[in-house]
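Hi! If you just cloned this repository, the fastest way to understand the data is to look at a raw example. We've pasted two of them here, unedited. The first protein comes first, obviously.
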Amino acid sequence: MRIFTASIATETNTFSPIPTSMESYLTSLAARPGEHPTDKPTLCTAPLFVARRRAAQEGFTLIEGSCFFAQPAGPTTKVAYETMRDEILVQLEAALPVEGVLLGMHGAMVADGYEDCEGDMLERVRALVGPDCVIGVELDPHNHMTLKRVGLADIIICFKEYPHVDIVPRAEELVTLVLKTIRKEIRPVASLYDCGMIAFFPTTSEPNTSFVARQKSFEGRDGVLSVSLVHGFPHADVPEMGTRVLVYTDGAKPAGDALATRLGEEIIALRGKTAPPNLDFAEALDQALAADTAKGPAIIAEPADNAGGGSASDNTMSLRELVARGVENAAVAPLWDPMAVAFCHAVGAGGRLRLRIGGKTSELSGDPFDADCEVLAVAKDCHQSFGEAKGPVGDLAAVKIGGVTVVMNSNRAQALGRELFTELGLDPSSYKLLVLKSAQHFMAAYGPLASQVFYSETQGPSTQRYEKHHYTRIARPKWPMDAEAAGRLIL
C-alpha cells in the first residue's frame, strides 16, 4: 500500500491589510520531503506526523511531499499559492500510483483568484489520482466547509477542541479511517448541514464543552464514523462561510442526514449562548482590576487584534489605557513590532530608551505609543508551544513602562505558550493582570493560571462583533446579521 502526504495551509482574513507572500510561508514553515520535524507536528501537518509512525508499525509505504504554513493574514498572492500547489502536485504525480492521499490543510485559505484554495487543491489531486484513490483531509474547525471539497474528498475530519489541543488525536482518526477505506472495511458517506449562522465556540466553557462530548458520543456506534462541528471563519468574505455540521457514516446516508440535522438544530438553538461576553476594553479592565487575583492573574483577551485571526497584533489601545490608568503589575503580550525589538536588542537588558511602539500596519493599528522604556530582557530566535506543536515567534524583547510590561516579538504570532515570558526570564503567573492578544488559543497554556478571564473588544480586523465586517459575498441570510436565518441539510 502506497500513501502520499503533504500540507498547504493558512487562515485568510480577507479584511486584513497584511499580504501573505511566499516569504510568509518560508518564515513560518516550508519543509520539503523528509525535512518535517520528527519530534513534533505543526498545526496543519499532523496527518504526516501520525502517518510516519503508522507506516512503520503497519507496513505501508509513505511518500512525503512538501509542507507549507503561514501565519494568518490577508490573501495569499497568486504566485505563492500556485508555486506551492504545483510543487506538491508534481511530487504526487511522481509518486503514482498511490492508494491513498493524506492532506493537512487549514480550510480557510484564500488566494488572489482562488476563494476556495482547499477545493482547488482537492480538485487537482483527484484529477491526478483518479476516483478510486482514497483522499483524507484534516482541517481546522475555523474553515469554510464547501460542498466542492466535501464532494472531492473521501473523508474530512476537523479538530474538535478550541483551543486546538487535539490535532494529533484527530489525525490518528483520519489515518485509521483512510486505511479502513482503502482496505474496503468501511464506505464513508458524507452528510452536511448548514446552520445559517456565525458564532464563537470556545470549548473550554459550556455549552461547548458538553457539545464536544456529545459529538464524540455518536462516533464508533450505529455506523457513525466521524462528527465534526465546523465553527466557520467569520473574518473571510467568501460565499460558504459559516457554521456547519459534517457527519460521516459507513454507507448509512439517511442516518447521517438525520444526525447532521439533529446536531445542526441543536447548534441553532444555542445561538447567542456559546460565546462569553464581548466587553468594551474599558469595561473589561474595570472588571479585571476588581477581580480577586490571589489565585492567579486576571486575563483580558484581545481577539480583535489577534494575529491568529489575521490581525497585525500591533494595536496600542489596550497598552495606552493601562498606562493612562497607572495600572501596576500588568503585562501585554505579544505586541508585534520588529523595529522596536531590534532597538531593544541593540540597547540590551538594563538599558533605557525612548521607544515608539506599535501602530505601524494600518489605520486598524491605531496610533503608535511613545514612551520612555526600561529594557527588562531580550532573547533571540524563540518559539512557543501549542499543545504538541511548536511555532516560531522570532526575537523577543520585554520593556517596562510604569507598571506595565510589554512583550514584543519580531515574528507576528498570537499568545499561545508561556514561552513568550519564560524565554525572557519572566513568570506570567507573577502578574496581577495579563492582556493577551489572542481569541481563545491562549487558554491552553494560560487558562490554568488565571483567576478570571475576560474577553474584550479593541480594534482590528478580527473583531468578534461581526456586524462591523463589510460582507459583500457571503450567503445570506446569516445570523446574527439576519435574525430569520434558518438551517438546512445541503448534502
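Ok, and the second one:
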Amino acid sequence: MTGSARAALLAVDGLRVTVPGAGRPILDGVALTVRDGEAVALVGESGSGKSVTARTALGLFPAGADVSGSVVVGGTEVVGAGSGALKRVRTADAAMIFQDPRAGVNPVRRIGDFLTEPLRRIRGESKAAATARALELLGAVGLPDPPRHLRQFPHELSGGMLQRVMIAYALTADPRLLLCDEPTTALDVTTQAEIMAILARLRRERGLGMLLITHDLDLAAAVCDRVYVMYAGRIMEAAPSDVLIAAPRHPYTRGLLGSAPPLTGPLARLTPIPGAPLGLAETVGGCPFAARCPHAVPGLCDTTEPEPEPEVDGDSMVACLRAAELGASLIEETQGESS
C-alpha cells in the first residue's frame, strides 16, 4: 500500500494542550499522521512544541495541563485513556528514543540488566531467552561485541554506543512506531550520521513507522518521507520532503531553509530569521509568526488567524493568509540559493 491507503500508526487531530498561567496553548490544533512503514519529521525551532507533541503519543502530558482533541496510537485513543490502555501503548505499540542516552539508564546497572528487564517483566521471557534477545538486538544496532557490552556499565560506552543501546531497548517491545526526539543532537557529526543510518535501516527491515523530532530541516528531508513544520504550537506547513525543500509555501519554512547550512555543496550565505521564537507567556492575535515574517501585512497577519489549507493530495497543507500570492516568490528565493 502507498500514500493514504496505508494504516495510520499515529493520528493526531485537533490536539490542544494548555497549562495554567500561559498566554497561549503549548499545542494549538495540531494535526499530523504517521502511517505504517513511513518516516515523518516534525521540524521547528526550540520551544515550538515538537517534543510535547511526540510525548503525547505515549500519554505523557505536562503536569496540570488541559488537553482536548485526539491522539490515536495503534487504534487506541490516548487522550483520556486509563492506565491499562496506556500501558499497552507504551509496551507494545510505540517506543521513544530520547536526545540524551545517559539520562535514560541507571549508571550502576549493567547494560544486560537494563535490556533484559523489560523482556522478562513485561513479555514474560525466561532469563536465557531474554539474554539471547538482548544479544540479537545489540547486534542489530551495530555494536561490535554484544556479549561484552552486556557486561558493561553505561560509563564504559561512548555516547554513540549508548544511543545504540537505547535504540535496542526501544526495540525490546517490538513496537510498530518509533518516536525519535532529536536522537542525534548530543552526538558528534560522524556519529549522528551512523545513528540515522541505523534508524533508517531498522525502519526498512522491520517495517516501522517513525516520527523524527528535529530542528534540522535538511536532515528531516534527507531521511523522511514527509515533513511537518511547527511554530508556537501550530503546524505551519506539511508536505512530502522533496516538495517542501524545493517549493516551500510558508515564510517560516522558507526562513528555516535560509538560515541553515546545506548538507552538501558550497556554503551559501545564511540569512537568520529575525527576532526570537514566541514565548509561552506571549499571546497571539493572528498568525504567531507575523512579528518575524518579512511578508506580513500589518493589520491583517497580526489580527487574523490563518486556517490550514489542505492540498488535494491530502499530504500537503499550509497555514498562511498570503500563501497563494507568495508561492512563486518563495520558490524563486529557494532556487536562487541552491543554484
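That's it. A detail worth noticing about the second one: The chain has one domain: 3-108+153-338.
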